[in-house]
Fold:
Amino acid sequence: MAVSGGPPPCRPGDAAVEAPATGSISLTPGGALPAEDRLYIRGGAGGAGTMAIQTARWMGAEGATTASPRGEMVVRRLGADHIINCTREKVRDVRQDYDAAFDLAAAC
Structure:
């Protein structure tokens, strides 16, 4: 039952439920990220991105991510080592030495 004026409740299969799994499963065995690797996460302030940052940290990888000024504090607190302000900088102009990339944004 949806509450009038509010979002409908999440159900299995909804993006809100799947996003955290996407961020962590993609970086774990099968898509394993070796410790000490440098990972670029495009769109780190979103649902899957926040899980990817935390998973990369847990695995011992160095993580860089894009974030808008609004999302910068979030990704910093989650452990991103490098934050690229996607409203002012282009990733290719800032860093290019990544071992792997995890693209979660369409326009950053």
Notes: The chain is about 35% helix and 20% strand. The chain has a mean pLDDT of 74. The CA atoms of residues 4 and 43 lie 31 Å apart. The longest strand covers residues 62-67.
